[in-house]
Amino acid sequence: MTGSTALLTDRYELTMLDASLADGTYARESVFEVFGRRLPLGRRYGVVAGTGRLLELINRFRFGDAELDWLRAEHVVSAHTLDWLADYRFTGTITGYREGEVYFPGSPILTVEAPFAEGVILETLVLSVLNYDSAIATAASRMVHAAAGRPIAEMGSRRANEDAAVAATRAAFIAGFSASSNLEAGRVWGIPTMGTAAHAFTLLHDTEEEAFRSQVAAMGVGTTLLVDTYDVAEGIETAIRVAGPELGGVRLDSGDLPKLVGKVRAQLDALGATGTKITVTNDLDEYAIAALSASPVDSYGVGTSLVTGSGAPAAGMVYKLVAHKTDEGEWIPVAKKSDGKASVGGRKVPIRHLDSSGTATAEVVHVLTTRPPRDAGRELLVTLMADGEADASFVGAGGVAAARLHNAKAIDELPEEAFRLGAGDPALHTLFV
Amino acid sequence: MTGSTALLTDRYELTMLDASLADGTYARESVFEVFGRRLPLGRRYGVVAGTGRLLELINRFRFGDAELDWLRAEHVVSAHTLDWLADYRFTGTITGYREGEVYFPGSPILTVEAPFAEGVILETLVLSVLNYDSAIATAASRMVHAAAGRPIAEMGSRRANEDAAVAATRAAFIAGFSASSNLEAGRVWGIPTMGTAAHAFTLLHDTEEEAFRSQVAAMGVGTTLLVDTYDVAEGIETAIRVAGPELGGVRLDSGDLPKLVGKVRAQLDALGATGTKITVTNDLDEYAIAALSASPVDSYGVGTSLVTGSGAPAAGMVYKLVAHKTDEGEWIPVAKKSDGKASVGGRKVPIRHLDSSGTATAEVVHVLTTRPPRDAGRELLVTLMADGEADASFVGAGGVAAARLHNAKAIDELPEEAFRLGAGDPALHTLFV
């Protein structure tokens, strides 16, 4: 987590910088806004994630010799622009939704205020982080709700890019997952890690019983034994024979789970292992989890569907210039006008309206170039970075813990229809006023 | 690209290691195999990617103080296991499909031969890299075919995790993409980069004409102007007035492209700009590209659908123990037996059968524990890493260039039905013999 992030950037940002330095517009005070035009796949709400990671990555957005030498060799920008990049450090202000906050179409999730040159080159990094992490958190939140209080662990690292996997774990934890298999996420973000054994461990040994004896010897009877390498019923019998009825848990990673889980519970109970937990991990998503709600499952492990956003692997957020100062010092809102991708210009102040019971009723976005209004609702913007300095409460493992707490509160405000799994309209309307 | 990759690992790999060190099975010579049970989404073939990256990441799979201290504090493994990890360096042999090779269900894409302890802890890293990169390369290959010789550039970094984006660019280039917007991919992997300006650049200026003048002044008349910020027809008129008929290109990022492109070509031609190219970049995937085949498009830019694998963001490969030596020194094949996830035990040697015209006819996988057979087809395995040392021809920018060349050859061997975009059976049957 120490390298430069400066070239995690699309080339056009540097060519725009180059031209704006030449024509003088680079210095115009500008407002860039991150928002999603719609929620993916008919989802009812989105969950903002990645913010804390992003603040740290912006601090590492510096052009060192390796970056500058390559840009020079490739003639990407002029010598003057290279000098400017060598001194680059973001000095602007970033406000936005707290990490863990829920969002809706048009919600101004992040606002970057800086001279054009400073803000324009952050586009790709900002979007990469927020689009992936928010897609994962949004999917994770649906799974957490489907699990209805049962613990749910993230085990999808093998189905995501190796670095993305760590970010996915972090996003899932913010959205309410209880733990992860990913050790780096444990080390860097303070997320509880879990895991005991794969089929390879059983297959390595001459018999399943030898494998179980070895695992219990190393990890104690509180461990979870994977019982489906050969035959599940025999595996369970062997597991209890080896570990006794105090065995912590059994894991099922194959088969027709709604049928199988009931049988396994009955067999465990008959063997006296009434406290032995059942964890299931076979290609689960929010729908499969919901389908197991009546089964005696104790915990879930989710892999592929989590790290790929369960059908929506990118949140679809965009980073748009929405206002800038003219040479006369006047703020003007700006927006693309042509077909299909129109957006709302101007700096925005979003308020979540709540009814008397505290349930959210609308996302009201005030379009301003100056000051926020007073309102009955909950103000959604916080200052994440002021004059280039990140607010320490949002970064690191502490930021993750805070985001997880905030997510739980924001989710609690949502109306019940927000939690339907089927495709539909956003749970709140976004009103621009 | 210098940090340790050792904790990009699921916890259960270290707990299996721990138990196997305690019971002595850790030293059993083992064969782990990477394969996909099926191709995603009814695809006709897959493209292997990530191999060169993986070899470098395995070289960085070392446990330093930061990793060991955290594992100790979290009580993940015993003190004895920590000592073993401190000395860990992979010393085994890895054979596999060349990067860029095409693959089918059951193709043994990568084979890791090492003592159990050395191989088991690489599972997550191996799968993370191959699953993501191969998913992207597989999607990219379909887009390249749909583009039918027109250049196609990768522009999706903003819709992928920031590190995954660099890997996606690399995978797309191997599968035949011509360039990328991602600067880090240019620096690290030698991939050509491209890009000129976004809507923000036009919106920053007081008029579209001022923006175009600035861009042409900085980048010359050979640049590509984005003409759809306000009104496309006016934008084109302005573009040619500013740059003259020698303008390099115009970019369209919105609208109903099949209709729009023809109009734009006619307008450019009428203005004398017959050599000005048209590049389109509006939410393209392989189907949208195919739908534009009769339109006068000169080049494509693809974003979201590329970096998310166009509906299949993970290739679904698994890493399985398929054989190990017993204490008596005998190789035995092993495989999970229970429902739904059965696999074929034993070390494998894959051969691609070709007919007399050089067209591939079958993927024949010989299941062996000893030596490969002689055969009429093309042998698919190469040695990627011997005794822990990566073959230098597969890594770095040189490895990427070689993989791109190899991909073109492997694609050329495929029968015509491999290139249908609709869902269907794999283009080749995989036969285990």
Which terms summarize this structure?
433 residues; alpha/beta; nicotinate phosphoribosyltransferase; TIM Barrel; 7-stranded antiparallel beta sheet; 6-stranded parallel beta sheet; Nic_PRibTrfase_pncB (chains A, B)
Written description of the protein model:
Two copies of one chain form a homodimer. The relative contact order of chain A is 0.17. In chain A, helix 2 (51-59) packs antiparallel against helix 6 (123-147). In chain A, the strands form four sheets. Chain A has a seven-stranded antiparallel sheet with strand order 13-12-1-5-3-17-18. Chain A has 433 residues and is of the alpha/beta class. Chain A contains 15 helices and 19 strands. The model of chain A has no long low-confidence stretch (mean pLDDT 95). Chain A folds into two domains: 11-136 and 312-432, nicotinate phosphoribosyltransferase (Alpha-Beta Barrel); 146-311, Alpha-Beta Barrel (TIM Barrel). The interface between A and B is large, with 110 and 109 residues.
Radius of gyration of chain A: 25 Å
> In terms of quaternary structure, what is this?
homodimer
Trace the largest sheet of chain A across and list its strands.
13-12-1-5-3-17-18
As for the CATH topology of the largest domain in chain A, it is: nicotinate phosphoribosyltransferase
Mean pLDDT across every amino acid position of chain A: 95
Q: Specify the helix fraction band of chain A.
A: 25-40%
Q: Tell me the name of the CATH homologous superfamily of the largest domain in chain A.
A: nicotinate phosphoribosyltransferase
Please tally the β strands of chain A and state the result. Answer: 19
Indicate the proportion of strand residues of chain A.
15-25%
Sheet bearing the most strands of chain A, described? 7 strands, antiparallel
Based on secondary structure, the structural category of chain A is alpha/beta
Kindly, what is the distance between the CA atoms of the first and last residues of chain A, rounded to a whole number of angstroms? 41 Å
Q: Which pair of protein chains has the largest interface, and what are the residue counts?
A: A-B, 110 and 109 residues
Mass-distribution shape of chain A = elongated
Number of helices of chain A: 15
CATH architecture classification name of the largest domain in chain A = Alpha-Beta Barrel
Q: What's the CATH C level of the largest domain in chain A? A: Alpha Beta
Question: How many domains is the backbone of chain A divided into?
Answer: 2
